[in-house]
Design a protein that fits this description.
Two copies of one chain form a homodimer. By secondary structure, chain A is an alpha+beta fold. Helices cover 32% and strands 27% of the residues of chain A. Chain A folds into two domains: 14-267, L-amino peptidase D-ALA esterase/amidase, CATH 3.60.70; 275-402, ArgJ beta chain, C-terminal domain (Ubiquitin-like (UB roll)), CATH 3.10.20.340.
């Protein structure tokens, strides 16, 4: 197991900055820059939305052609640069060009990320100012400021890091920052995450990153929406001199750091009061299990019941029933437990044989009042299993999203 | 065109009642009975949820064997009789048996419907009392009381009727009541509806009903959930002596009455402040168009933006982009208009060529403040089209569903 800290002390070989350049009306931090001392091997995972923001299109193209020579990533909040046509693409290229000029590299060695309002062009004078301020502020210990600069409706920065040792003996660091909040669904969402490591992996980085994303960012649901901008980037240089094999700590660390960031996104989801672990077992297959888990996790009726501290398990069973998977209510079993745990082993049995189990309503009520609740639904049909992390749906979610642009 | 009234003056040949039998803690009306003077031809459309409530299972079975001799329908609110196993089925049968005994028919000539909390057994002493009270109260003019008795979180009863004339010269009546509120999604939802007519159609009733449902109840979305209990029943006797061919007013009337009830369900959805018509054109096919429309209509981000009177059309485009249909943003066009209308003909163009159109934000803001708003998204790809009616997502929705069982 890899120990993950919720802070980043620094990753030698990378310098970062977070500044305020005027994209957010409030004057808050809104521009971050991450620069590697030497060219990085990089990989990315991107939104599957058919409507992709300009920075997503730019990064996808660039990583196809140039994944072994990435030097920097520029990230802005306040404007998503999505649904902005050719001008949006031109602005994304301009951002990369200005960064390249200031740090002294080629334009195609710079990646960009944006988050914020859709359908608005980037204010390029602000971007220019952001780059100038950020380049001057670059340092090894500014990770928290950078994490703050990419926030939108997030209430706190999300950081994770791990100190590791390669088989070859050298120690190295892996770290990541992320922003999330609303619009989070499996297969990526208005979710930006950047991970770095100062060691080389003696195996393809893209497949490692996909496996890590699959078990972290693609397992979280806030509201079921999926954004035009979702991006997870991983930059690795070799400042530590360590070279890791796939048998080393590298894959575990990538999974642990990304899972920590992903779960932090759920815990800090818009208006969230409760962290919910949805575990499905006994489904006809693992894809079926996942579909059932996602249907439960996106159901407004399930989510509002959790917000209301109402152990209304009938809504969970009903949501499973409309997931599009053949199910037999007589074979289903449903448990609920406090905390992040296997509810079948440590929780209360609520439903079996197609009807309510005999349980104490007071006990169920005590469980659902906890800030973290796990449910397990066994379908009694096969070997398919899946876990998804989600949250409740509160008044605050509605308030935040009704007033987002004002 | 068929004129539909939001009231029911009476349908000769049918007697109805709505009474309070104690299933609702508040003492409100909670039991309705509809009795035909003579045996009816009946048809039903039921939830496609894999978890079906006991009354749904009973009605489906009964209509398979006995669709030409239905005499009565008993409907209770307060308890859904879903996830209740064998005891639930026994209770549904017992309800039918008691009704049959009191009105003098065979048990298999009675259908039942239930709505309310899932996972709780029916209080059969209340049901018994409800049947006794309702049989004594039966009359031709109690339709509004009956419509009130099937309400759960509905704020008003939903009624519709039409006065029609058959090709053979006789006049006849068609009418319906419905309850909806939350948990409404295409393919039926916690939606109960009962339609009656006192004329015979010289064509199969089930196919007529399916076509009507497809263009009404299956086109509405409140929260995207789909219940265990959704049922639409249509009972027809021949009290008027009229016999209609499919070329007569009968199909149009069935569509008009069911559409009126379906739209009323949306207008009275939990916490609804805005009625939204989502029109998709130019999709690769009609199923694709519908999938795009449903994804927009269920998006929490789209729904909260409407609640906030924020013409945040980027969220509509982003929702379309994640519907699982290949789309080209460059070919998409989006319009918005006040009222229920074709927004492309009468509204404001917001998005084309992959970027914002040049429109006045003040004009967009004035449109979205209306209680009824239409959007049209043309995908620019093919001939597929679909219309879905939906609503916004408000604080009140969260309040209602967080506290439902308390």
């Amino acid at each position: 197991m890899v120990d993950v800290l919720p802070t980043i002390a620094g990753v030698p070989g990378f310098k970062v900055a977070g500044v305020a350049c005027g994209l957010k009306k409030t004057g808050a931090l809104d521009f971050a820059l991450i620069v590697s001392d030497t060219p990085c091997t990089a990989a990315g995972v991107f939104t599957t939305n058919q409507v992709k923001a300009a920075p997503v299109l730019l990064d996808m193209e660039r990583l196809k052609q140039n994944s072994d020579r990435i030097r920097a990533v520029a990230i802005n909040a306040g404007c998503a640069n999505a649904c902005t046509g050719q001008q949006g693409l031109d602005n994304a290229h301009q951002t990369a060009r200005w960064v390249a000029e200031r740090i002294g590299c080629a334009e195609d060695e710079v990646l960009v990320m944006s988050t914020g309002v859709i359908g608005m062009q980037l204010a390029m004078d602000s971007i220019r100012r952001g780059i100038d301020l950020a380049v001057d502020a670059l340092g090894e210990n500014n990770w928290e400021t950078a994490a703050r600069a990419i926030m939108t409706t997030d209430t706190r920065p999300k950081l994770a890091s791990a100190e590791l040792r390669a088989a070859s003996g050298q120690s190295y660091q892996m770290a990541g920052i992320a922003k999330g909040a609303g619009m989070i669904a499996p297969n990526m969402a208005t979710m930006l995450a950047l991970m770095v490591a100062n060691a080389r992996l003696a195996a393809p980085l893209p497949s490692l990153l996909h496996v890590a994303a699959e078990q972290s960012f693609n397992r979280i649901v806030v509201d079921g929406d999926m954004s035009t901008n979702d991006t997870l980037l991983f930059l690795t240089n070799n400042q530590s001199g360590a070279v890791e094999t796939p048998a080393g700590q590298y894959p575990d660390a990538a999974r642990a750091v990304s899972r920590r960031l992903a779960q932090d996104i759920v815990r800090d989801g818009e208006g969230v009061t409760k962290f919910i672990t949805v575990q499905i077992t006994g489904a006809p297959g693992s894809e079926a299990a996942r579909q059932i888990a996602n249907t439960i996790a996106t159901s407004p009726l399930v989510k509002t019941a959790f917000f209301g501290n109402d152990a209304n398990w009938g809504r969970i069973v009903a949501a499973a029933g409309r997931a599009g998977i053949p199910l037999d209510p007589e074979r289903m079993k449903l448990w609920m437990a406090a905390g992040e745990t296997d509810a079948a082993a440590h929780g209360l049995l609520l439903f079996e044989h197609g009807m309510p189990a005999s349980y104490s309503e007071a006990e169920a009520s005590a469980i659902i009042r906890e800030p973290s609740v796990s449910i397990r639904l066994d379908c009694g049909l096969g070997e398919g299993a899946a876990v998804v992390w989600t949250c409740d749906l509160s008044h605050e979610y509605v308030s935040i999203n009704a007033d987002y642009r004002s």
